[in-house]
């Protein structure tokens, strides 16, 4: 029954009973025809009224339930899905860094395992050798002591040889330091020195009162090479000029190099404590938010692809940021080129785990995005799936591989095929 259009067109009068032509001209027949016409007109009026009532009800129903609440729900659902996915991506980036901070940067044992083997690195060995020789020459006043000894024992007519002899003393000192660096003792001392410096830094970052562990020089965290200097001093001969140097006292501040100061620690302390706290939970929260956002989205496959591509881009930006931070940090060091190269080696080893995890996440995001796209209904995706199926079939045929009842892979896949499809 139509419920739209004008009143004249809304009733199909062809289906109403036609009164028929009058047969004869008697009065009864005329009255009967008039009554039938009257009944027809009444039926038409009733149908028109019912039609109008239906039209009015349809209008009211459209006004009350025109889809506006449904559209509102869809809008809020899209906004909610997008918000969860964006938060998941941000938490994923921060969580990746937080895990590295907690497990490597703030873990002395792990840091020592990463930095300890660098005692054999040529750049590190050269930098330590130069620093120890310079500090030992300065701390023991070796040049002055050597010159005084030569002035006392050398005749005046061969005093011109004193400069060459002093240089020979420096070479002897350098050789002694080099022998120490090539020995297993240096590896032990290097681990001791770097572990102590790291403990100082971690204590300064994670505790409010760190005086018990932190060695401070005017509220500075330092790298103390004094044990290496003392070990190198003990390598010198006990007689002659070398004996005078080996018996010289080493000042307390000899071989002490500043790593950072209290102002820099104050700026980094809150961030380090927060990342150390979130290092365990932030990745889990990020995964939960991502799954929730994809589940809330109307087009889940599309949401998966977009989110994974965005995460891959963020991982690329993280790798780029690490590279820029490395260059900036090394360029700001007020040291010679030898020390800067060694610092670069140590920095690379310390952040290698972060670079590795970032690269793994980048590859994983790309693979998930490709997998979500291939599982779609587009023609290229269908063609790829068909090609893979045919390739597997050809490989099975050429390799004589069958998936019979006794096949172990088939026994695993067949009972769990729905789970594999969902995955």
Task: Write up this protein.
The chain has helices spanning 27-64, 68-105, 108-115, 122-140, 142-153, 162-181, 184-206, 226-234, 240-246, 262-278, 282-296, 300-331, 337-374, 379-399, 408-413, 417-422, and strands spanning 220-224, 256-261. With 423 residues, the protein is an all-alpha fold. A two-stranded antiparallel ribbon has the order 1-2. α6 crosses α8. It is elongated.
Entry summary:
With 423 residues, the chain is mostly helical.
Spatial shape: elongated
Order of helices and strands: HHHHHHHEHHEHHHHHHH
Low-confidence stretches: 1-11, 209-218
What is the helix content? over 70%
Tell me the layout of helices and strands:
Layout: H1 27-64, H2 68-105, H3 108-115, H4 122-140, H5 142-153, H6 162-181, H7 184-206, E1 220-224, H8 226-234, H9 240-246, E2 256-261, H10 262-278, H11 282-296, H12 300-331, H13 337-374, H14 379-399, H15 408-413, H16 417-422
Antiparallel strand pairs: 1-2
Helix pairs in contact: 2-10, 2-11, 2-12, 2-13, 3-7, 4-6, 4-8, 4-13, 5-6, 6-8, 11-12, 12-13
Features:
423 residues, mainly alpha, two-stranded antiparallel ribbon, 16 helices, elongated, disordered N terminus
């Amino acid at each position: 029954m139509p419920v739209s259009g004008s009143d004249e067109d809304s009733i199909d009068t062809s289906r109403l009973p036609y009164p028929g032509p009058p047969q004869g001209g008697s009065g009864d027949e005329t009255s009967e025809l008039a009554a039938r016409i009257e009944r027809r007109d009444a039926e038409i009026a009733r149908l028109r009224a019912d039609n109008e009532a239906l039209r009015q009800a349809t209008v009211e129903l459209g006004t009350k339930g025109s889809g506006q609440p449904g559209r509102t729900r869809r809008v809020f659902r899209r906004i909610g899905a997008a918000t969860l996915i964006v938060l998941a991506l941000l938490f994923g980036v921060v969580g990746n860094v937080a895990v590295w901070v907690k497990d490597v940067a703030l873990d002395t044992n792990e840091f020592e395992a990463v930095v300890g083997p660098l005692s054999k690195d040529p750049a590190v060995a050269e930098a330590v050798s130069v620093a120890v020789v310079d500090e030992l020459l300065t701390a023991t006043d070796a040049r002055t002591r050597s010159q005084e000894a030569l002035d006392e024992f050398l005749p005046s007519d061969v005093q011109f040889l004193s400069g060459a002899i002093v240089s020979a003393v420096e070479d002897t000192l350098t050789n002694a330091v080099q022998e120490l660096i090539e020995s297993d003792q240096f590896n032990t001392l290097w681990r001791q020195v770097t572990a102590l410096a790291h403990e100082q830094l971690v204590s300064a970052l994670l505790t409010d009162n760190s005086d018990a562990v932190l060695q401070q020089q005017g509220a500075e965290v330092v790298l103390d090479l004094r044990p290496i200097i003392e070990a190198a001093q003990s390598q010198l001969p006990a007689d002659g000029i070398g004996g005078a140097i080996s018996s010289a006292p080493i000042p307390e501040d000899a071989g002490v190099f500043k790593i950072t100061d209290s102002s820099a620690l104050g700026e980094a302390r809150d961030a380090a404590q927060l990342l150390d706290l979130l290092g365990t939970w932030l990745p889990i929260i990020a995964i939960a938010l991502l799954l929730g956002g994809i589940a809330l989205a109307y087009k889940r496959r599309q949401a998966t692809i977009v989110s994974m591509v965005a995460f891959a881009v963020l991982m690329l930006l993280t790798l780029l940021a690490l590279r820029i931070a490395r260059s900036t940090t090394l360029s700001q060091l007020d040291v010679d080129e030898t020390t800067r190269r060694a610092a670069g080696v140590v920095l690379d080893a310390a952040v290698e785990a972060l670079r590795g995890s970032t690269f793994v996440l980048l590859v994983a995001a790309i693979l998930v995005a490709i997998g979500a796209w291939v599982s779609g209904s587009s023609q290229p995706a269908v063609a790829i799936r068909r090609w893979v199926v045919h390739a597997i079939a050809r490989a099975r045929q050429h390799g004589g591989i069958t998936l019979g009842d006794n096949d172990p892979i088939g026994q695993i896949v067949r009972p769990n095929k729905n789970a594999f499809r969902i995955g």
